[in-house]
Write a structure and sequence with these properties.
The complex is a heterodimer of chains A (about 450) and B (about 350). Chain A is about 30% helix and about 20% strand. In chain A, the strands form three sheets. In chain A, strands 6-7-8-3-9-10-15-14 form an eight-stranded mixed sheet, sandwiched between helices. Chain A has two domains: about 260 residues, P-loop containing nucleotide triphosphate hydrolases (Rossmann fold, 3-Layer(aba) Sandwich), CATH 3.40.50.300; about 90 residues, no CATH class. Chain A is built from 14 helices and 15 strands. Chain A starts with 20 loop residues before the first strand and ends in a 14-residue tail after the last strand. In chain A, strand 9 and strand 10 form a beta hairpin. With about 450 residues, chain A is an alpha/beta fold. In chain B, a hairpin with a 2-residue loop joins strand 1 and strand 2. Chain B is built from 16 helices and two strands. Chain B has a single domain, classed as MetI-like (MetI-like fold), CATH 1.10.3720. Classes of the chains: A alpha/beta (about 450), B mainly alpha (about 350). The interface between A and B is medium-sized, with 35 and 29 residues.
Chain lengths: ~450, ~350
């Protein structure tokens, strides 16, 4: 990556300045190596890396509920897991009460696990089917040797079960996970998570596998637990509605980066990043009379192993500007989308202008030399592209791609298209709101110099 | 997902929590009680035959009229190759030994060897399988390589080689025979347990255990063991059956237990080959029959258990619902109906 988005004035950044910083991440990166094809597997050569988490800075204060929101594949779960040391960071640091937990090995982390707990997405899979509730819920006590004798153990387990609403506890002690419903299982998982008195609880979509009727109850239970036990939550979700209900601070993630980070109410009332706007627009409106036509982002979330240059959202962004990181891949997408809509003959005719459209698929090309097809000159290609630009300038909504094209000219038998130099948007504070956003459109006027 | 393929009938390794242990047993016994049809027949037939075999083996000194190496009684020798009669129901061998006694004592030898071999291979195979499956990496690779190499040998050849090696250390007794059979069966347990451990390792509850701060040894004992052990009882009974055959094979080749140490069916069969040519059927028939019955018993037990415990094989039957007796009361309450206002009765 070129630059790390950095937080300016992180001291007053997020809204919940309620307590001291509990967890601080800076420059956090988690890249998973890819093994590639059969040959690569044999030779053990890595074929690139998936950038699940790509340069993240955030501060989690005591008592805060931070929501990590994003589409599938945005790295929100990986970030949540890395914050408590379940996934190894490849770069950057996570400090828990000043102690760098990325430097600790599995052995060094074990004592800390008592304080940093996790609730997994699937309650049906996160309890050992061969272990009864008495043993399963109390196991952290045994692991960390927190109880002296059986009476104390039993009392703590009963207390934890009562706290999560599995009452009367005696009825559940001898049961196996298979005897419980999904909501009851998630309650048992929560009991197990809180029994060792943790400080931070990372909840990875804790309600997404539950019935609608149980979801609100579990969220309310989590809020009650937070109040009673002085917990701090990281709530990982793709469900904006529950995040709005549950979180103090929200971080919208896209392709391993935070694009918007601020107090929940502010983010929802006044979304700054085009991606946030799109996410909010995607919340279904139950009343068909009131449903507005909405602009959902085009296409799919890009491959995290080959993220777009500049702002990762630019290929899907309706309001992208020239510095957003336009590149050859975007031209290919544009052409292919056009040819899909045209009649097959016309598409074939236009395709023949290009010798090899696939050559545009290489990532990171800021200047691309297009070879003209057989029987065509580079001027023909340029003419065609100019024609496209002309067409686009009249169409509504305007295609933002052409804003990124700086020049098109012929050079030694090829049509050369040059794009504006890409620039990574940095998280910058919007004054008076406490929201940080990584978007070129929202940058303070002084800091628009490129990298 | 891994957990869905795992049967939920645990055998809890740790007896610290009573409920867990009994709960686990209850689940297995419940499955056995629910069995119907052919699996039920196989299970019970196998259990009865196996129980007979075990009883014979345990009470051999009471059942057998003579000891396995007795060739004279009351001051005169037994007849040589005598046909079955009132004194020797199953006849006598070329060495003037009583065939009935040798067959009964043979069951004892077979049981001893079988138990030792099964216990040894169970402990070693399950332990190695769990460790290899959970930790993976180089340890796993090396173990898999060794186990596959063991698999590649014909099992009798392997047992013979192991028998040679161990007889130098432990002599030609029951323990040596058991050890040489153990070597043959370790890879089976290893493979099955490793495969289950590999899939269970990826399960969320194992990850959750790690997130709780559990050490690998705790994860293996408390979270993996109970979930991978279900496939083991079936292999155990199958191996028990197979072990009897392997022991007999070794004895037949003269490589198993020394004839002075214990009676052994395979050895008896070997000595009976010439008799069979001479028309003396009893010396080979009875040890052979005993062997067949013992193997049949354990195989039926194993197959039955497999059908009953394996959730992919198990078919739940819908039993006929019998209406409870007090449904008659309905006819009693029926006359009360007209009292209800008609509008409500329609509802």
């Amino acid at each position: 990556m070129l630059t790390k988005p950095d937080i300016e004035e992180s001291g007053e950044g997020a809204a919940g300045d309620v307590g001291e910083a509990l967890v601080e991440a800076s420059g956090l990166e988690v890249h998973f190596g890819l093994r590639g094809g059969l040959l690569g597997r044999f030779s053990g050569r890595a074929a690139g890396a998936v950038r699940a988490v790509d340069g993240i800075d955030l501060t989690l204060r005591k008592g805060e509920v931070l929501g990590l929101v994003g589409e599938s594949g945005s790295g929100k779960t990986t970030l949540g897991r890395t914050l408590i040391g379940l996934t190894k960071a490849t770069a950057g640091t996570v400090r828990y009460r000043g102690q760098d937990i990325t430097a600790l090995g599995e052995r060094g982390l074990r004592p800390l696990r008592r304080r940093l707990q996790m609730v997994f997405q699937d309650p049906h899979a996160s309890l050992n089917p061969a272990m009864d509730i008495r043993t399963a819920v109390g196991h952290p006590l045994r692991i960390h040797q927190l109880v002296a004798d059986e009476q104390e153990y039993e009392a703590r387990v009963v207390d934890a079960l009562e706290r999560v609403g599995l009452t009367p506890p005696e009825r559940y002690l001898g049961k196996f996970p298979g005897d419980l419903s999904g909501g009851q299982k998630q309650r048992a998982v929560l009991a197990r998570a809180i029994i060792a008195e943790p400080e931070l609880l990372v909840a990875d979509e804790p309600i997404s596998m539950l019935d609608m009727s149980v979801r609100a109850k579990i969220l309310q239970l989590m809020l009650d637990l937070k109040r009673d036990l002085d917990l701090t939550y990281v709530y990982v979700t793709h469900d904006l509605a529950s995040a709005k209900f549950f979180c103090d601070t929200i971080a919208i993630m896209y392709l391993g980066r935070i694009v918007e980070y601020g107090p929940t109410a502010e983010v929802f009332a006044n979304p700054q990043h085009p991606y946030t706007e799109a996410l909010l627009a995607a919340i279904p409106e139950p009343d068909p009379e009131r449903a507005l036509p909405r602009e959902l982002p085009r296409g799919e979330i890009p491959d995290a192993a080959r993220p777009p240059m500049g702002c990762a959202f630019h290929p899907r962004c309706p309001v992208a500007v020239e510095a957003c990181g336009w590149e050859a891949r975007d031209l290919r997408t544009l052409l292919e989308n056009r040819w899909l809509e045209l009649a097959p003959e016309a598409a074939t005719r236009e395709k023949s202008l290009f010798a090899d459209v696939e050559s545009l698929a290489v990532d990171g090309l800021s200047t691309v030399a297009i070879a003209p097809g057989r029987g065509h000159s580079p001027e023909d290609v340029l003419e065609y592209l100019r024609h496209l630009r002309e067409e686009a300038s009249q169409a509504e909504p305007r295609e933002p791609f052409w804003r990124g094209v700086v020049s098109m000219h012929a050079e030694s038998g090829r049509a050369v298209v040059e794009f504006a130099p890409p620039r990574d948007p940095r998280l910058s504070l919007i004054p008076a709101t406490g929201v940080q956003v990584a978007c070129h459109l929202r940058e303070p006027v002084g800091s628009t110099t490129g990298t | 997902m891994a957990t869905t393929t795992l049967p939920t009938g645990p055998i809890e390794p740790d007896a610290s929590a009573k409920g867990t242990r009994f709960g686990g047993l209850r689940r297995i016994t419940a499955a056995i009680r629910e069995a119907r049809g052919v699996p039920r027949f196989m299970l019970w037939a196998g259990a009865v035959i196996s129980a007979l075999f075990v009883i014979t083996a345990v009470f051999a000194p009471l059942i057998a009229p003579y000891s396995f190496d007795t060739y004279r009684s009351g001051g005169h020798n037994f007849p040589k190759q005598g046909s079955p009669d009132g004194d020797h129901w199953f006849g006598t061998t070329v060495q003037s030994l009583d065939v009935l006694s040798r067959t009964v004592y043979g069951a004892r030898t077979a049981l001893e060897v079988m138990l030792l071999a099964v216990v040894f291979s169970l402990i070693l195979g399950v332990l190695l399988g769990l460790v290899a499956g959970y930790f993976g990496g180089w340890l796993d690779r090396i173990l898999v390589l060794v186990m596959d190499a063991l698999f590649a040998f014909p099992y009798l050849l392997l047992a013979i080689v192991a028998g040679f090696v161990f007889s130098g250390i432990a002599g030609g007794g029951v323990v040596t025979a058991a050890l040489s059979i153990t070597v043959v069966y370790i890879p089976q347990y290893f493979r099955v347990v490793r495969a289950s451990a590999l899939s269970a390792r990826e399960a969320t509850f194992v990850e959750a255990a790690r997130a709780m701060g559990a050490k690998p040894s705790v994860v293996i004992r408390k979270y993996l063991f109970g979930n991978v052990i279900q496939s083991v009882p079936v292999i155990t009974t199958m191996n028990a059956a197979d072990g009897i055959g392997t022991l007999a094979g070794l004895g037949f080749l003269g490589l198993g237990i020394q004839p002075t140490q214990a009676a052994e069916w395979g050895y008896d069969l070997d000595r009976a080959i010439d008799d069979a040519n001479a028309g003396m059927w009893w010396t080979s028939l009875y040890p052979g029959l005993a062997m067949v019955i013992a193997i049949l018993g354990f195989t039926l037990l194993g197959e039955g258990l497999n059908d009953v415990l394996n959730p992919t094989m198990r078919r739940r039957r819908i039993s006929k619902v019998l209406l409870p007796a007090h449904t008659r009361r309905r006819t009693v309450t029926a006359p009360a109906l007209p009292d209800v206002p008609e509008g409500e009765a329609v509802k």
